[in-house]
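Ticket #4471: complex job returned nothing on first submit. Input attached below:
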Amino acid sequence: QVPLKPGRSLMDWIRLTKSGKDLTGLKGRLIEVTEDELSKHNKKEDCWIGIRGFVYNVTPYMEYHPGGEDELMKAAGTDGTDLFDQVHRWVNYESMLKECLVGRMAVKPIGAPKANILMALLFAGVLPEKKVLASSKDLTPRKYIFFSLLYFLFYSYDWFQTESLITIVIYTKQKDMNAELVIVDCQDKQLRGEIIIDDHSYLVEVDLDHAVSEDVAVNIAEKVGKVEIILNKKDDIHWKMLGQPLEGHNTFIKRTDRGLFYRKCKLVSKTEVTHDTKLFCLMLPKGTHLCVPTGQHIYLKQIIAGTEVVKPYTPVLPFLPLDFKEPPRQDGVHIYLMIKIYSHGLFTQALDQLQIGDNISVSNPEGSFKKSQVQTSEDLLLLAGGTGFTPMVKLLNFALTEVSCLRTVKLIFFNKTEDDILWRNQLEQLALKHERFEVQFILSQPSKDWVGKQGKISSSLLSEFVKRSRRDSKVLICICGPAPFTEQGVQYLKDLGYSQEEIHAFTA
Ligand code: FAD
Ligand code: NAP
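Support reply: We reran it on our side without changes. The output follows.
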């Protein structure tokens, strides 16, 4: 993110798009854009970018881009889809840039089929890895049909019925299948069941033949990787078919190639955590099965002044449980978000206006953190700045409950003032209760009464607090906070001799 000039906030951009000004220079006309034509618009004062087959004139948006003009210019005159997906595929550009739409990209001849089907075979254990990767690019049509057939034979779903139930069965062949890897939404006869397999996703998406009740059950046979989605028929009639396939039905593709799916959740409570931070409790719809994995975030979507705005948030627990005898189970019904309300924040101001009972759209989870990183460590060090504490909540709980090989768990929590410290009391209680856990608060703008540590993230502070419990102990350091805090922190850690593999930075 770069500092934007005054009058160049997202709200200012939304106002400009509603002003009726011609932002494309084409007076509302939509045109077909060839690659050649696109490439001519590659300057700051005349910049077009292609995203998913559509071309936008982003010249008027330059000064409003939170990532800066130079970032936007990287895609000038080209298809920027890959770059966009790498940086912020969750940003709703269709809504934000709709007034900048120049037209569609001219259709190119269709190339070789994607490697998805081959990847499916790979996961189904049908093909050895080398063969798949080597042959994915140049499939002849005959081979394509052959592999497609294999795909449907080995990686697919089945369904059956009783008088009152419909059961959809997916055989994933994944040994460690679990509830976090299955996301189901069933509303108004539309069923969407997504199975996450590493960085890929398999989808069952059907317009059901008949009505079902709101409740959905998911059964997982973890060892064999069998997933059952169980629906209750509204009427005791025999179904001739499951329903009509929808767009993404029976596909196995990279997760990043799937659009973000949202469902409406109800705000059930909002409680104060500090003077500016609140704990929002959202309730998932009855037909949804969704558990957000430790270390992952979701996106919230609101319509603000007629434009869809999306921001990421990291679910926490309702509180830090002190009793770690039982591994905590997510109830599968509620999502808790700890959110700081900024006095000039576009999204958080709108969020704060929500009333109990209002709805808000919540996406599927995303994020690159893997629990296995913790399971193989002896020391876990968590560096948090402000609300950068949020990913640490579930992580702490997981580490202290389920990872017995960890010798030390230490949270180093940076805040401006004492009043800004989130869940200070709970953290102190936790430290008293658990020998393995230690917390250190560091304030950058303390009052004169503060007797604790003060300062900003720095090499010297980190060398004081970030230490291995033994000379060669395996360490994992997780860091999250304002972007410059995280970036500088990672650099200091590297300067102190920690390797990239020992550091996980939470980012979007
Ligand atoms: P914005 O309108 O973006 O502004 C935020 C503040 O910055 C305001 O005070 C504004 O005046 C100021 N500001 C805006 N632009 C500039 C600028 N160019 N120069 C200087 N100041 C500026 N937040 C949480 O509270 N809880 C979470 O759990 C959480 N999880 C996150 C997870 C991820 C992966 C990421 C990337 C972020 C997360 N965030 C979280 C931050 C969240 O996504 C939003 O960025 C945050 O809520 C602010 O949104 P906003 O629209 O209200 O603020
Ligand atoms: P804040 O209160 O403004 O700052 C928290 C601490 O970080 C303060 O001590 C502050 O010191 C310090 N800090 C701020 N900017 C710094 C910088 N440039 N260099 C060094 N130290 C700096 O924080 P906040 O308002 O809660 O914001 C939290 C941030 O975390 C947001 O940007 C949010 O997007 C991010 N976040 C990310 C994720 C994720 O998963 N990626 C999750 C949650 C939150 P001073 O300001 O006094 O210098």
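Residues 3-4, 297, 311-314, 337-340, 342, 344-348, 387, 390, 508 surround flavin-adenine dinucleotide (ligand 1) (CB under 6 Å). Closing as resolved unless it happens again.
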